[in-house]
Design brief:
Order of helices and strands: EEHEHEHEEHEHEEEHEHEHEHEEH
Number of strands: 15
Pfam families: Bmp
Helix content: 25-40%
Largest sheet: 7 strands, mixed
Number of domains: 2
Family: Belongs to the BMP lipoprotein family.
Main location: membrane
Membrane topology: Lipid-anchor
Organism: Curtobacterium pusillum
Oligomer: single chain
Number of helices: 10
Shape: globular
Length: 357
C-alpha cells in the first residue's frame, strides 16, 4: 500500500496487561463506594454521550469501577452533557478531593490542561489525547488505525456490492484515525486481490468525508448512514459513540443484508440488540488500561509516560466475527493473521494523518 507520514496517536482494544488510560464524567459528581480499604479516591469525567454509550465513555467508566472494586476505594464521576461543562465538572471533582481524575476523550484536553496546571497536587489521565506536557497528566492513546486496517480488509473481502462505507461523529483525530485505517485496509485488499472495492463516506487523501457533527444518536446520524446505504455500501463503520445505534436502525430499515462494524468495544457483546448485523468491531482496550492506570496511581506509581495501545501490545484489535464466522471467506482469518504480523514487524506500513493537536 502507499505510505503516508505516520503521526498516529490515538485511537481500540486493550486486553489484560495493557497500561494506562482513563475517562468518563458527570454533570453533578456522584459518589460510589466498595467495602472501603483505602483513602485513595479515583474520579472520572465523561465526554458527551454519557457513561452508558456502549463505547468509549462506558469502557473508561467500567475500568474505573474495576479498579475501585479491587482497591476497595470510593470513586466519583461527573457526566458531561456537552462541552460547556467540561471545565466545571473537573473543578467539582478537584473539590471532592480526588487523587486521580481521568478525563475521557480528546475534547476534554483544554479543560484537563487548565485544571492540571491549577492543581499540581492532583494527578490526571486523559484518554485519546497526548497534547498535554505536564508532570501530573498521563496520556492514554490508541493506534486504532492498525486495527481498523484489519477491519477494512475484512469488510472488502465480505462485501457483496463492492462498496463499503464509514462515517464519523466529529472530524477530530480520534475519529478519523479509524477512518484512515479502514480505507487503507480496503485499499490493501484491492492491491492484494486485484479488486476494486470502493469506500464511501471518507477520502484519505483529501481528508474529507461524512460526519454528523456530534456523538449523539438520532435523525442526523441515521440520515448520514442512509446516504451510504443509498450508495450501495453493504458494510458500514460508524465512528463516534452512540451514532452506531442510528446506523444500525438505518441498516435494519433497509433490510438489504448490510452489516455493521462497531467501534471501541465489541458491538456483538456490548449491545445485543444489534448482534444479528454485527460483523466485527474495531476495539481499543480502554477498560483494562484505565484500570491499570488507576491502580498504579493508588500504589504511588503514577507516571506521565504516555501509553499507546497497538496490535503488538494488544492495546487494539478486532473482535471475532461471531455469527458471521461461517459466512466470511474461509481463508480470511489466516490472511488477517498474516497482515497483523506484518503490521507488527513493520513490513506492512499503516499510516494516518490523524494527530492530536
Amino acid at each position: 500500500m502507499t505510505s503516508r507520514t505516520r503521526q498516529v496517536l490515538l485511537s481500540s482494544l486493550a486486553l489484560a496487561g495493557t497500561v494506562a488510560v482513563l475517562a468518563g464524567c458527570s454533570a453533578a459528581p456522584s459518589d460510589t463506594a466498595s467495602a472501603k480499604k483505602t483513602d485513595f479516591r479515583p474520579c472520572m469525567v465523561s465526554d458527551a454521550g454519557g457513561f452508558d454509550d456502549k463505547s468509549f465513555n462506558q469502557l473508561g467508566y467500567e475500568g474505573l469501577q474495576d479498579a475501585a472494586k479491587d482497591l476497595g476505594a470510593t470513586y466519583k464521576k461527573a457526566e458531561s452533557k456537552d462541552a460547556t461543562v467540561y471545565d466545571s465538572n473537573i473543578e467539582q471533582l478537584v473539590g471532592q478531593n480526588c487523587n486521580l481524575i481521568v478525563t475521557v476523550g480528546f475534547n476534554l484536553a483544554d479543560a484537563t490542561k487548565k485544571q492540571a496546571a491549577a492543581n499540581p497536587g492532583t494527578d490526571f489521565a486523559i484518554i485519546d489525547d497526548n497534547s498535554i506536557d505536564a508532570k501530573n497528566v498521563k496520556p492514554i492513546t490508541f493506534d486504532t488505525s492498525q486495527a481498523a486496517f484489519l477491519a477494512g480488509y475484512a469488510a472488502a473481502s465480505y462485501s457483496k456490492s463492492g462498496v463499503v462505507g464509514t462515517f464519523g461523529g466529529m472530524q477530530i483525530p480520534t475519529v478519523t484515525i479509524f477512518m484512515d485505517g479502514f480505507a487503507d485496509g480496503v485499499k490493501y485488499y484491492n492491491e492484494q486481490k486485484n479488486k476494486d472495492v470502493k469506500v464511501v463516506g471518507w477520502n484519505v487523501d483529501s481528508q474529507k468525508g461524512s460526519f454528523t457533527g456530534g456523538f449523539e444518536a438520532g435523525t442526523q446520524a441515521k440520515a448520514v448512514a442512509q446516504t451510504l446505504i443509498d450508495q450501495d455500501a453493504d458494510v458500514i463503520l460508524p465512528v463516534g459513540g452512540p451514532i452506531y445505534q442510528s446506523a444500525a436502525e438505518a441498516i435494519k430499515d433497509a433490510g438489504n443484508g448490510s452489516v455493521l462494524i462497531g467501534a471501541d468495544s465489541d458491538l456483538y457483546e456490548a449491545d445485543p440488540r444489534y448482534k444479528d448485523i454485527a460483523f466485527t468491531s474495531v476495539e481499543k482496550g480502554m477498560r483494562p488500561a484505565t484500570k491499570d492506570v488507576v491502580e498504579q496511581a493508588a500504589d504511588k506509581k503514577f507516571s506521565n509516560e504516555p501509553y499507546v495501545g497497538t496490535l503488538k501490545n494488544d492495546g487494539v484489535g478486532i473482535a471475532p466475527f461471531h455469527d458471521y464466522a461461517s459466512k466470511v471467506d474461509k481463508g480470511l482469518q489466516k490472511e488477517l493473521d498474516t497482515i497483523k504480523s506484518g503490521i507488527i514487524d513493520g513490513s506492512i506500513k499503516v499510516e494516518t494523518k490523524a494527530t492530536v493537536k
